[in-house]
Amino acid sequence: xxxxxxxxxxxxxxxxxxxxxxxxxxxxxxxxxxxxxxxxxxxxxxxxxxxxxxxxxxxxxxxxxxxxxxxxxxxxxxxxxxxxxxxxxxxxxxxxxxxxxxxxxxxxxxxxxxxxxxxxxxxxxxxxxxxxxxxxxxxxxxxxxxxxxxxxxxxxxxxxxxxxxxxxxxxxxxxxxxxxxxxxxxxxxxxxxxxxxxxxxxxxxxxxxxxxxxxxxxxxxxxxxxxxxxxxxxxxxxxxxxxxxxxxxxxxxxxxxxxxxxxxxxxxxxxxxxxxxxxxxxxxxxxxxxxxxxxxxxxxxxxxxxxxxxxxxxxxxxxxxxxxxxxxxxxxxxxxxxxxxxxxxxxxxxxxxxxxxxxxxxxxxxxxxxxxxxxxxxxxxxxxxxxxxxxxxxxxxxxxxxxxxxxxxxxxxxxxxxxxxxxxxxxxxxxxxxxxxxxxxxxxxxxxxxxxxxxxxxxxxxxxxxxxxxxxxxxxxxxxxxxxx
Length: 485
Ligand SMILES: [Zn+2]
Known about the structure:
It is a single chain. The chain is α+β, with helices and mostly antiparallel strands. It is 41% helix and 13% strand. It has helices spanning 17-23, 27-39, 92-101, 131-135, 148-154, 159-170, 184-196, 217-242, 259-273, 287-293, 298-304, 309-315, 331-356, 386-408, 424-427, 441-448, 451-459, and strands at 51-59, 66-73, 87-91, 141-145, 174-177, 202-205, 209-214, 280-284, 320-321, 371-374, 378-383, 432-433, 436-437. Strand 1 (51-59) and strand 2 form a beta hairpin. The longest helix has 26 residues, at 217-242. The radius of gyration is 22 Å and the shape is globular. It starts with 16 loop residues before the first helix and ends in a 26-residue tail after the last helix. Zinc ion binds at residues 50, 144, 146, 208-209, 310, 485. Residues 50, 144, 146, 208-209, 310, 485 line the site of zinc ion (ZN).
């Protein structure tokens, strides 16, 4: 790949040829290096989100015969901090053999039980549900990432058209694949998409994220950051063209509330969302959070819900918006409204659960919101401890970036169909607002209450003794190592 096409304007190319050369004899170490570089920038992928893989040959530990393997980020790992020991290593011929065992989409969950049987040697790292997505893409090095700029295109009603514009502008060949939940069916769809367009150099997966690849580790890295960088350029340009009025402009013009005002509201809010189980709060009051919270479209966008499946388990299907204009209402009025709105949220959430639950569904976890948006105060996230509350809040800031980008991409084609760029049989289920498309509630429920995800939650460590209680000395860590694929 000529150097000129790997230039980036927004992202730094961190690839160090000397370091890569030193690691080259150990492909797993080079994959770890590539993954750490990608995970180091939150604009490239969110906390714990996305996964990377390489295909290479290792000697069978028993016979010494060469075996083609797939090394892919293990379930629950984080790209920034992953070590070589965090990758699941599987025999590619065994993974390929699974295709013959596949009974169709209705049975795709049963395939997950086969992944450990494909392990290479004594590798016991749990393979994530994204494993077949990497296995069946016919490229030696594959990155699957969740960049806010790419999800903005993926979550746009006119996403396919925006991607056409992107390809024409930058001379790229990124293909569009309509939404399909993560799983074995998606893996086969990805392979078919490449079969249909063998010269494509990436795939945007509707309402989800990005796949990019390369024939070498360095080429894969450059393709990923270049693609994300160019998508950032496109979204940024559209946002500038729109002017400063993101989210329909400000509806509440009151200044950011003083710390004392927030401190007076927070215990009430925390108490209200702790009706089922006690939670700890984290408040985000930065410029982006307040611009969204104060905007004319905040109520509608909050009601629509989040778009990326990676966000659900943290932010739930939708945040709660509590309208408040501090110029007109006092704190007592806000407290009353918090109570009313949270009670209504709980009723709606129970109806959502009961509407979609089947006899095999995991039990309802908590009907309270995990994110509350209040004008002039900001975005408040909740969790069992300070760390989880902060991560939840940061995930919703990711969602704000996605909504900002998708609404910036709005044009005359956006209104053609809310489910535009989706599969025809699904299109009617997708709702949109100013070009931003949320996942249908049925799909969201499938992910939020996926039996296999529930099993993973059950396996996680027991809560610490002082979990859900305020200790006044919650440690602040820059970067967690949490999340799924
Ligand atoms: Zn993903």
